[in-house]
User: Fold this.
Amino acid sequence: MPSQPAVLAEAADALWGAAKTGHYIPPLRATYPGLDAADAYAIQRRNTERRLAAGRRVVGCKIGLTARAVQAQLGVDQPDFGVLFDDMSFGDAEPISMQRLHQPKVEAEIAFVLGRDLDMGNPGHADVVKAVDHVLPAIEIVGSRIAGWDIRFVDTVADNASSGAFVLGGSPRLLREVDLRLCGMVMNRRGEPVSVGAGAACLGNPINAVVWLARTMAALGQPLRAGDLVLSGALGPMVPVAPGDVFETHINGLGSVKAVFETAAAVAKEST
Ligand SMILES: C[C@H](O)CC(=O)C(=O)O
Assistant:
């Protein structure tokens, strides 16, 4: 049974407050034991509307929970999605302020940029392949407003799929130039490998994840559109971020992208 609107509003307010204050909250599933997936997306939508009202612009979607191991950990057999906004976007090697992040972790991903709308009913693989304009290497900086990342499906969905920020590489490639299933990924922190993986880790092929999202959004009556960015899901394990960290991700056939986080001294200066 769907939760009462007052419960959804209270949960959305709690996440919003945690993002503003940095006082992270207990898991929603513990505070509101009846919450289901539909409730969680309704909570996410409330805060999306709040961000839009504050002048932020939607630039696309992120897909999460695409790795079978992570799905098993959270007890689900499907991915989830969150909304990407203009102010989450950082360029290759552009310094990222720690102040705006919440318990940040990084993941290496493949970003898709669409050149056509996917507004047909139940889009398929051929539709998605035709609609992709280009792909890019990306680093997603995930975050959680839930204390200690103690999340299950409803907690992360409500929290905009634990999104935070993202960095895109600067050299777009065409889909036909790369085999996304086979491309290997290594992420280094100051030269040391901290996460390795491959395209196949993302639902067998990152294109499968984009098909899942395209179908989901079409079914919701909010189809993916030309110009939308899609972060397709992690290719390897998430890695916690500390101030001053620099992560470089290389994805075979796609090139490299670097995420640079401000130092502890800069964090201290910002908070005085
Ligand atoms: C909890 C996050 O959704 C993880 C994520 O972004 C991913 O699995 O990819």
Notes: The pocket of LCEJXURD is lined by residues 64-67, 70, 107, 140, 142, 156, 161-162, 233-234 (CB under 6 Å). The longest helix spans residues 5-21. The chain has a mean pLDDT of 95. The chain has eight helices and 13 strands.
